[in-house]
Design goal:
The structure is a homodimer.
Chain A: H1 3-13, E1 18-19, H2 22-27, E2 42-44, H3 49-62, E3 65-69, E4 85-89, E5 96-100, E6 105-108, H4 114-122, E7 126-127, H5 140-146, H6 153-156, E8 163-169, E9 175-179, H7 191-195, E10 204-211, E11 213-214, E12 218-226, H8 229-241, E13 248-253, H9 254-264, E14 274-282, H10 284-300, E15 305-308, H11 312-323, H12 325-330, E16 335-338, H13 348-361, E17 365-371, E18 376-383, H14 388-407, H15 423-429, H16 432-445, H17 470-475
Parallel strand pairs in A: 2-4, 3-4
Antiparallel strand pairs in A: 1-2, 5-6, 6-10, 7-11, 8-9, 8-10, 12-14, 12-15, 13-14, 13-17, 16-18, 17-18
Helix pairs in contact in A: 1-3, 8-10, 8-13, 13-14
Cofactor (chains A, B): FAD
Family (chains A, B): Belongs to the FAD-binding oxidoreductase/transferase type 4 family.
GO cellular component, one term (chains A, B): glycolate oxidase complex
């Protein structure tokens, strides 16, 4: 990057807020997605929306890419800087500006840590439900950019269900406000919801107004073990059919149970085919009744063991099995590829079985866990990126997994976004007309394609015939890899 | 309209499905919005998405406007056809195609009547919460196009919270599918939510996939009377502050109470300053506790009378007072202008008082009722459109009402949409950059501006200085009025 541009950036944010050392550039060259990395030219730390506006205007003039970044927990390469990029670091915007107890809202800066917001609002008996796996480090800004999900999605929905308003800097530098504290608002197009989940490609959030709800009065946490995933699948279907909406309804397969036990020593039965973690919440009487019904349903479907937490610490223990799944799997092999193929809830047993068949076919290890209640699976390949031959099989396996998810009316991504990692699959899920709709929105908002360019899709004509593989996508930027 | 175009339309949908008699054109020249009307050139009744696609392609070639219409209950002139328009009548698309009890979804055609869907899903113990005032005649397609609200918005949200997927014909004729049965889906931009609430300007829905939830086990309906709206307002604030989320929390002012009593003879105390209708639902134990707490809060705030329904028919009776409000007010004078200025919940007492001051200032009658729980007011002017002098005062009063709502962080429309009636206010609520964002979305999707053109905004440069009045907007089309 031209030193003249670096000087201009320093002039906007102050010299101490532009980092260009090789150590810093390496630190911001990757996110939580294996195999993707590329050096940014600089890391810029803005303090005000006006500074961000000036940076974006400069990017439009000088034609460089701006990659907004919170804590960098993306699992789709969403904040990996492509060549000719600067990283715009937002994680110091950490103020909770207001908790409005009359209107049940919180106004926050984008760098607030998700779990910190949980704690703060719970002091007032309020509740912010979205709880992505990375919540202890992820930022609200990143959650909004990715429309993050979590374990409470089945009953409470995902991030977009809790975003009431945004102050946002558009790619061309205009600062706009959309939404507000009104529960109902139908004035003009719903700009807010097209910005949510736009993966940092349509705007940079500088203030976020969130909806809060009263904290549920009580909850009960249960864990059940089954001989097979099929028994666990039937249990999930029966729970929903009895019109119980658990706050949490998660599963672990045998591979994941073994890894978790090996990691956390919780005393899990390592031969169990599946584990279900279930939490119901609400009024104590309702919670009591639902817990009883769920126990009966589990036993009817052949649960080999069933535990109900008797205290908060016991509940926390049970939840550890699920929360530790990713970390536990990640210890087994050097590279852990965590995906989020999602299907309508009723197809979970079929999809889980298919994933196992595909893993066998390609002779790779795929641990499987995830949000059984909302169809959001996390098939996780345990591999080694240095083993090019195995990596090729892993890629082929995921290609088949995504194809099958799409065939079942599912989606290539329930939580993680498209980013760099799933660009080539997006075109399988949507028609040309729908992809053009997306690209046209990007083109009118970001005519010079400067904001997180190259994520979600390329603004080139759709290539006919074979889609490039992830490996080929990476090879394109070979000279720039760390 | 050129007879050649009429012939081409007949060729697409069949001769019997193109109506051009003056009687038919008059019947489709207006909706539920007073003072707006204009003759369409024809009414076209399509049977398939492909026919709609061909009609839209023809509109692009021949440069006429297509106005999609369900039951025509718009309160913002949303389906009033501007000159050079055809009405595309969708209300015969009445099939409920699927109720999926495993995934808790309903797939419907756009012409399904809202209340009919309620009844059908409730047979399976399921629940579709959105319940706009016009639900006994409104269509789901219209509800989605307007993002309709209703009485249950506070606890359950509005239409957009229940739309999972859409089959939609875009203005240029492409048929696309967005969304699906997945509870979590973050693949690509959220096109679905920008189509919802686009007031028929961005696409025509041909299939709608809706989210259902388990029907609440029980409910209790209460009514409370107060000497003043201020006491009622304090009651609302105290209910929310105690972390109770009623399914319904509605108010009527004294003018409305008097009109309802005169109309429905329910035995309401006609001297009460305000009435609150409250319904809580959920688990019986929770409902019982919440009802008790609410009674105490009402009494603490000086309720002069308090009733709790002891049976379903008593509950229905209590709800009649609220459901009849619009019809009761409409009897008083020839013209009833029902608005939906909305403010953050905590500003309701201030906004209600301001509306009364404004009504006094302009010496007009404004009845006030609405959704106290979610800040969505329905100030309703009782007037006579033939009295030009009074109509001018009514317009001035609403101008001040909207200005004050915006000042409080509110919105010019909580439920009814912008349509024709509120175009001139939209620019007060949003910045130039936000309006340009909306217009750019319209321009890329509908380059010839053929789909419900002239609604929400004009695609002309924003006029500097004074905004045109509603009267001036109407006068523009004077030669064409019925």
């Amino acid at each position: 990057m031209d030193v003249k541009i670096i000087r201009q950036l320093e002039e906007i944010v102050g010299r101490e807020n532009v980092l260009t050392s090789i150590e810093n550039r390496i630190a911001y060259s990757y996110d939580a997605t294996p195999t993707f990395a590329s050096l940014p030219d600089a890391i810029v730390i803005p303090q005000t929306p006006e500074q961000i506006s000036r940076i974006l205007k400069l990017a439009n003039e000088e034609n460089f890419i701006v990659v907004p970044r919170g804590s960098g927990t993306s699992l789709s390469g969403g904040v990996v800087p492509l060549p000719n990029s600067i990283v715009l670091l937002m994680n110091r915007w950490r103020k909770i500006l207001e908790i409005d107890r009359e209107n049940l809202t919180a106004l926050v800066e984008p760098g607030v840590i998700t779990a910190h917001l949980h704690q703060e609002v719970e002091k007032y008996g309020l509740f912010y439900p979205p709880d992505p796996g990375s919540m202890t480090i992820s930022t609200i800004g990143g959650n909004v950019a990715e429309n993050a999900g979590g374990l409470r999605g089945l009953k409470y929905g995902v991030t977009k269900n809790y975003v009431l308003g945004l102050e946002v800097v558009l790619p061309t530098g205009e600062i706009i406000n959309v939404g507000g504290k009104n529960v109902k608002d139908v004035a003009g197009y719903n700009l807010k919801d097209v910005l949510i989940g736009s993966e940092g490609t349509l705007g940079i959030f500088t203030k976020i107004l969130l909806k809060l709800i009263p904290k549920p009065q009580s909850y009960k946490t249960m864990i059940a073990f089954f001989n097979s995933l099929s028994d666990a699948g039937k249990t999930v279907a029966d729970i929903i059919a009895s019109h119980i909406m658990p706050a949490t309804l998660e599963f672990l397969d045998n591979t994941t149970i073994k890894c978790v036990e090996d990691y956390a020593h919780l005393g899990l039965p390592v031969n169990a085919g599946a584990l279900l973690l279930i939490e119901v919440d609400g009024h104590p009487a309702q919670v009591e009744e639902e817990a009883e019904k769920i126990e009966k349903i589990c036993i009817k479907n052949g649960a080999t063991d069933y535990k109900i937490a008797k205290s908060e610490s016991e509940a926390l223990n049970l939840k550890t099995a699920r929360r530790a799944a990713f970390a536990a799997l990640a210890r087994v092999k050097p590279t852990t590829i965590l995906e989020d193929a999602t299907v309508p809830r009723s197809f979970i047993p079929e999809m889980v079985e298919k994933i196992q068949q595909i893993a066998n076919k390609y002779q790779i290890i795929i641990g499987n866990f995830g949000h059984a209640g909302d169809g959001n699976l996390h098939p996780t390949a345990l591999t080694d990126e240095r083993d090019k031959e195995e990596m090729k099989r892993v890629e082929q396996a995921f290609e088949e997994i995504f194809d099958y998810a799409i065939k079942l009316g599912g989606t290539i991504t329930g939580e993680h976004g498209v980013g760099l990692a799933k660009k080539r699959f997006l075109e399988k899920q949507f028609s040309n007309a729908a992809i053009d709709f997306m690209k046209n929105i990007k083109r009118v908002l970001d005519p010079n394609n400067i904001l997180n360019a190259g994520k979600i899709f390329d603004l080139k004509p759709r290539c006919e015939g074979r889609l490039p593989t992830a490996r080929e996508e990476i090879e394109k930027y070979k000279g720039l890899w760390v």
